[in-house]
């Protein structure tokens, strides 16, 4: 099992070291191991959790909602989860999916507006900047 130091995780996830430490402090993504010197060490699964968080953040999900989504994913990945737990997790993920799709639609519309404005303003640039 490959263990990564926080700097490597930061590079892979495009999250700052400070942000990764914050997620550890609030218990959202706790590193799977520590080095002999006490440094945080992360697994591929830890990195995947951080990437999921990075994807949720710009869509407006709170830390608690991120925790709920990660917990639901854990339930579905755990072969020992009960049927009732799996149903609750599936329902939660369906709601998160709906909200993510709504956020994507909103962001797509906003991106269209930004492109329109950029094109409009480009007409006023001096010729040498075109």
UniProtKB/TrEMBL annotation:
Any GO MF annotation of the entry: DNA binding
Which domain of life does the protein's organism represent? Bacteria
The chain positions of domain HTH merR-type read: 3-72
Signal peptide start and end residues: none
Q: Any keyword Transcription?
A: no
Q: Which UniProt keywords apply?
A: DNA-binding
Q: Tell me yes or no: is Nuclease among this UniProt entry's keywords.
A: no
PANTHER family xref list: HTH MERR-TYPE DOMAIN-CONTAINING PROTEIN, REDOX-CYCLING DRUG-SENSING TRANSCRIPTIONAL ACTIVATOR SOXR
- Give the protein's recorded name: MerR family transcriptional regulator
Q: Which organism is it from?
A: Mycolicibacterium poriferae
Taxonomic path: Bacteria, Bacillati, Actinomycetota, Actinomycetes, Mycobacteriales
């Amino acid at each position: 099992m490959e263990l990564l130091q926080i700097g490597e995780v930061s590079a892979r996830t495009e999250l700052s070291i400070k942000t990764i430490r914050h997620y550890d402090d609030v218990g959202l993504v706790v590193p799977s191991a520590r080095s002999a010197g006490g440094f945080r060490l992360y697994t591929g699964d830890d990195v995947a959790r951080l990437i999921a968080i990075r994807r949720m953040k710009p869509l407006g999900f709170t830390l608690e909602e991120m925790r709920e989504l990660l917990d639901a994913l854990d339930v579905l990945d755990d072969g020992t989860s009960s049927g009732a737990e799996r149903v609750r997790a599936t329902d939660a993920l369906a709601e998160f999916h709906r909200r993510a799709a709504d956020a994507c639609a909103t962001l797509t519309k906003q991106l269209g507006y930004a492109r329109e404005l950029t094109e409009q303003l480009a007409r006023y640039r001096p010729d040498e900047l075109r």
